[in-house]
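explain this:
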Amino acid sequence: MTSSIPAVGTRTAEPATLQAVFLDLDGTLVDTEGFWWEAEAEVFAELGHILDDAHREVVVGGPMTRSAGYLIQVTGVDISLTELSVLLNAAFLARIGRGVPLMPGAGRLLAELVAHDVPTALVSASHRAIVDQMLYSLGPENFRLTLAGDDLVRTKPHPDPYLTAAARLGVDPARCAVIEDTLTGVSAGEAAGCRVVAVPSVTPVPPAAGRTIVPSLEEVDLPFLRTLITESRRTVH
């Protein structure tokens, strides 16, 4: 099978150099995971269904198709996936239109990466309209590249978003750091061969070999990310 992922470029760098940083959006840079659940609860209430809080852990961090499909299945609501996706996106956009709060440490980390000219990509499973709206709060100047869930055929937990980001920036995935808040995103970054930092938000991320877990972005800075790449390369060699 021919891959739809472009070949990685040949950017020159020292063997242990951090080449780029890829960041998730919801729950990682912006405190919006609760917004999604509120939007889902609101839409389903209008459709005559009260969502049980137990479903929240299942849908968090996932792409729209998976989350919406799951909620249709468990509620039995008579609506198509496309129709529900439109309603959910509209409800979410209405909330973020009033502004979104940044996660602690997010603004400082983005500013540090820009100041040191570290290529940074925003890699999200959210739709393009939502990503573009949130960029008003994050600052589009902080990112060399943005990828949304509907920009690709396959999104997280598949590795495609991070492989695509690396290819478009011309960097080696193994020399890139990924920062994610959910197991879905962490799995995507690890499958792409990146060094992953998990900053759990709504649900815990279990420990695993090669996985770094921190309580907050306030624990993450450029020296920290560079050290992760250095240690990873030493382990490989």
About this structure: Residues 9-13 have pLDDT under 50 and may be disordered. The chain is about 45% helix and 10% strand.
